[in-house]
Specification:
Elements (H helix, E strand, L loop, with lengths): L5 E9 L2 E6 L2 E7 L11 E8 L2 E7 L5 E5 L5 E6 L3 E7 L6 H13 L3 E7 L7 H12 L3 E4 L8 H8 L3 E5 L6 H8 L3 H11 L11 E4 L5 E4 L13 H6 L5 H4 L17 H6 L5 H13 L6
Parallel strand pairs: 3-5, 8-9, 8-11, 9-10, 11-13
Antiparallel strand pairs: 1-2, 1-4, 2-3, 4-5, 6-7, 12-13
Length: 296
């Protein structure tokens, strides 16, 4: 083992390197070529080359990892060691339940908890949406109703973020950035500190950044990432990603059941009889069609 190895936390990707926090100080690090891509939230071992510069030598084991699609059908890490993904959605632009299901399916397969955040509760809600939300609550997903503009429900959300590593996910226009600014009022100040400390001019707005919350816990803000993608999931994992399917999958007659019109399938009849949500089942079929063909 190398001498002089220090442990640090990756808090941001900057144009010229990676910002690593150690002992409440931030150091700009390069990475060893042979290392896989380092993600925000990674715990790493690094060596110091000058007072405010270093080199990442090793990525410590991760407890979870979120990926996003990259070029040529490959994937890239977005953030590591996340405990909970908070899926943010709103009545406007529209409630994208297909995207919500996609996030939840990924979390079910990635050892990450998931919770739902309905933003813009100052707008009128529809009965159809309330019915869908009830399905998620019955499945055990926590639902937080907030309004960043009216500053309502924020205290409950802040409590939920306490003492864990979280990330907000959701399509653009749902108010993720206004929520982040409400949760981290001094966000710009903290961001500028990272840029100044690492002598790296402007902090890019698309870079994922980890912020320490005043009440305890960390929030990874990843403004440039709306979609994590299904590229890393197999067809079986997608089905497992629907929490209500999990006990039924074991009852299917065949191990490779696709839950379409397969003989002895337990999932489809459960949706047809109303034992599980038919709209969620239909969205599963849609997501299945959207999957990269290599995984089906």
């Amino acid at each position: 083992m190398m001498t002089g190895l220090l442990e640090g936390l990756v808090i941001s990707h900057l144009g010229q390197g990676i910002a690593v926090e150690h002992d409440e100080k931030i150091v700009l690090c390069q990475t060893l070529r042979k290392l896989e891509t380092v993600a925000v939230g990674d715990r790493v071992l690094w060596t110091q080359s000058s007072p405010d510069q270093g080199r990442i030598e090793e990525i410590l084991p991760r407890r979870s990892l979120l990926m996003r699609p990259s070029r040529n059908g490959k994937t890239r890490p977005v953030a590591a060691n996340i405990d909970t993904v908070f899926v943010v959605f709103a009545i406007e632009p529209y409630c994208d339940f297909l995207l919500i299901d996609q996030y939840l399916a990924i979390c079910e397969n990635r050892n990450i908890d998931a919770a739902l955040v309905l933003n813009k509760t100052d707008l009128p809600q529809s009965d159809a949406i309330e019915k869908e939300l009830l399905d998620y609550e019955h499945l055990g997903y926590a639902l937080y109703r907030v309004s960043a503009t009216a500053a309502s429900g924020l205290e409950q959300l802040k409590q939920a973020l306490k003492d864990q590593v979280s990330i907000l996910a959701g399509q653009s226009g749902v108010g993720k950035s206004s929520l982040t600014n409400a949760i981290i009022p001094d966000k710009d100040l903290k961001t500028n500190t990272v840029s100044a400390t690492t002598k790296h001019g402007r902090h890019t707005t698309t870079a994922a950044t980890l912020y320490h919350l005043d009440q305890g816990g960390d929030l990874i803000d990843s403004p440039g990432v709306a979609i994590f993608g299904l590229a890393g999931l197999s067809e079986q994992q997608l089905a497992y990603g629907y929490r209500e399917f999990q006990p039924l999958i074991e009852q299917c007659q065949f191990k490779n059941c696709r839950h379409l019109v397969d003989k002895g399938c337990a999932v489809r009849p459960a949706a047809e009889t109303g034992a599980i949500s038919m709209t969620r089942y239909q969205r599963f079929l849609k997501l299945r069609e959207k999957m990269p063909t290599a995984f089906i």
